[in-house]
């Protein structure tokens, strides 16, 4: 759902040639990991005979959050990434980021 909403937005033509292959690779990796995690979660859920899988979903989300924080910290401190400052300074960009985040959170 988040990818669909993201693709409806207008993409500016600046630097699209440089960012497009990396973005496509990240989207592909996200889709592959989603498929892998769903199948592993289903197998784990059936093997442990639990009614709900909320705890495993929470642990998976916490690990992903920690990994994202490490990736962001590396980019921020060692590569001088200014993404956070740019998102906070631009209200339209902030709204788009929050909308994509909500779509990802609610599925």
Report on the structure:
The protein has 107 residues and is mainly α. It has a domain at 16-50. The chain is built from 5 helices and no strands. The chain has helices spanning 2-8, 16-48, 54-78, 83-89, 91-106. The longest helix has 33 residues, at 16-48. The radius of gyration is 17 Å and the shape is elongated. The N and C termini lie close together (6 Å). The mean pLDDT is 77.
Structural descriptors:
107 residues; 5 helices
String of helices and strands = HHHHH
Low-confidence stretches: none
What's the rounded overall pLDDT mean?
Answer: 77
Q: Globular, elongated, flat, extended or rod-shaped: what is the shape?
A: elongated
> The biggest beta sheet, please?
none
Q: CA-to-CA gap between the ends? A: 6 Å
In short:
With 107 residues, this protein is mainly α. Helix content is 82%, strand content 0%. It is built from five helices and no strands.
What are the SSEs and their pairings?
Blueprint (H helix, E strand, L loop, with lengths): L1 H7 L7 H33 L5 H25 L4 H7 L1 H16 L1
Helix pairs in contact: 1-5, 4-5
């Amino acid at each position: 759902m988040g990818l669909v909403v993201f693709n409806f937005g207008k993409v500016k033509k600046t630097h699209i040639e440089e960012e497009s292959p990396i973005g496509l690779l990240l989207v592909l990796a996200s889709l592959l990991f989603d498929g892998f995690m769903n199948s592993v979660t289903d197998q784990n859920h059936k093997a442990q005979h639990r009614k709900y899988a909320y705890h495993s979903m929470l642990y998976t989300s916490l690990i992903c959050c920690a990994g994202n924080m490490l990736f962001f910290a590396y980019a921020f401190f060692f590569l001088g990434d200014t993404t956070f400052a740019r998102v906070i300074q631009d209200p339209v960009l902030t709204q788009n980021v929050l909308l994509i985040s909500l779509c990802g959170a609610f599925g």
